[in-house]
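Why TrmH family RNA methyltransferase? Reviewers of the renewal asked for a concrete example.
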Amino acid sequence: MSDNFHRNGPRRVGQVKEVTSLANPIIKDIKLLTDKKHREEAGAFMAEGLKLVIDALELGWTIRTLVYAKAAKAKPLVEQVAAKTVADGGLVLEVSEKVLSSITRRDNPQMVVGIFEQRWARLADLKPQADQTFVALDRVRDPGNLGTIIRTADAAGASAVLLVGESTDPFSLETVRATMGSIFAMPVIRCSAEEFLNWQKGAGVSVVATHLAGAVDYRTADYTRKPVVLLMGNEQSGLPDSLARAADRTVKIPQQGRADSLNLAVATAVMLFEARRHLLTLEDK
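Here is what the prediction returned.
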């Protein structure tokens, strides 16, 4: 990878670079960010859309490279974001629509793409407080599910999303798209099952797990006494016994139709809004 994606940050530039060639080495580096291995090596990821880029900057995220289509050049907000990127030592690329399409792998791409430094929260730094809710996902595999859950957790007022075990990458292009910008607002933590269980013991939380063997209706559980961790199982196999046994309560979402299970993102949304029902009002926003 070129210096623009080194973990120490991009080289400082003083002007916008115009790029029209798909063979440009910087464009090649950006396209490599569609691969998880290269994202991890670079410590970077892609986010599409001017609104997402602005939201990220307002929330204090570090932008390494701003890419925008020539057609967006005259837009005042694009000019402001470009000026801030340069002022912060980032790189600004003005590209053709063909180049932008090759980066995002879309025929009708967003006019603006930002390359940001990845940011992970740490499990050890979590100090759960009353009225906080956390989502813990065991080995979540589907990028769309994870992105939707991060977005839902943000909407419901959750405090963090914990990825337990080998999970899909929250910084993949598909997941970031599905978060609709909530990736910048919601702390994400990765940990092993052992680390999660050790943290649970001393964190003063109540772990509520959804499980097919759960005997309690999720609507009857008490979510008000302690900070709550909603523990959700893998899309195919559900929760392993080791995690289910360690939960303070196992609950079940009643179903009546022929479907034998809910989509993970839907089930998590149902649980989240029930767990936070006593805290949510129409005046929250």
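The chain has two domains: 3-117, 123-275. This is the kind of structural detail the renewal will allow us to pursue systematically.
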